[in-house]
Design goal:
By secondary structure, the protein is mainly alpha-helical. It has a single domain, classed as dinb family like domain (Four Helix Bundle (Hemerythrin (Met), subunit A)), CATH 1.20.120.450. The protein is about 65% helix and about 5% strand. It is built from 6 helices and 2 strands. Helix 2 runs parallel beside helix 6. About 5% of the residues have low confidence.
C-alpha cells in the first residue's frame, strides 16, 4: 500500500512538473526582479525630478514609468484577458482596432496621470495584472496562437514581450535617473 501511494505521489509530481517548463519559472523570476527594480528606482527619484525629460520630444521619467506599466494591459488584452473598464471604456470589439485603441489610450494616460505617487500606483497595478498569466500559463498554453498587432505570435511570445519591454525601459529609466543624480538602489 505504501509503495502504491509513493508511486502515485511520484507520478502526480511528474505530471504537475511537466505542466510548466523550467523556462517559465525563469521568465517569471526575470519579470518579478526587474519590475521590482523599476519600481524601486522610480520611488528613489525625487518628486521634483519626475517630470524630467532629457529632450523636448521624449517621454519624461513619469511617462516612462507609466508607459512600461500600462503596456501590460495591452498585452493582457492580446492574451484575451480583461482590462480595467475605467481606464479603457468603450473598446472596439474587433482587432486590431481594439489594440490600437488601448495603445492610444495608454499615451493619453501617460500625459493625464499626474504626480509621482499616482504614476507609481498605476504602474504597480498594471504590473500586478500581468502576474497571473505569467505565473499560471501551462506549458501547452505557451503555444496558443495570438496576435501582436499585425504579427502572429503565441501566448508565450506575449509573455516574453512583457519581460523584454520591461528590460528595455528599465535601461532607459536608469539613464534618466543618473541624469538627475540618482544612483539605482541596487548599485549603491
Amino acid at each position: 500500500m505504501r509503495r502504491t501511494l509513493a508511486l502515485l505521489s511520484l507520478a502526480a509530481g511528474v505530471t504537475f512538473a511537466q505542466d510548466r517548463l523550467p523556462m517559465q519559472d525563469d521568465l517569471w523570476r526575470e519579470f518579478d526582479l526587474y519590475r521590482t527594480r523599476l519600481l524601486d528606482l522610480a520611488r528613489s527619484i525625487p518628486d521634483d525630478k519626475f517630470d524630467f525629460r532629457p529632450a523636448p520630444d521624449v517621454r519624461s521619467i513619469k511617462e516612462v514609468v507609466l508607459h512600461v506599466g500600462l503596456n501590460n494591459y495591452m498585452l493582457l488584452d492580446m492574451m484575451g484577458r480583461a482590462v480595467p473598464d475605467e481606464l479603457y471604456p468603450n473598446l472596439p470589439q474587433k482587432q486590431p482596432d481594439r489594440m490600437r485603441t488601448i495603445a492610444q489610450g495608454n499615451v493619453k494616460l501617460e500625459k493625464s496621470i499626474s504626480g509621482k505617487q499616482k504614476a507609481i500606483a498605476a504602474a504597480e497595478r498594471a504590473f500586478a495584472a500581468v502576474d497571473e498569466p505569467i505565473k499560471s500559463t501551462s506549458a501547452a498554453g505557451l503555444n496558443v496562437p495570438a496576435m501582436f498587432f499585425d504579427r502572429k505570435t503565441t501566448m508565450g511570445g506575449l509573455q516574453l514581450r512583457a519581460v523584454a519591454h520591461l528590460h528595455e525601459h528599465l535601461g532607459q529609466l536608469i539613464a534618466y535617473a543618473r541624469s538627475v543624480g540618482v544612483v539605482p538602489p541596487w548599485s549603491q
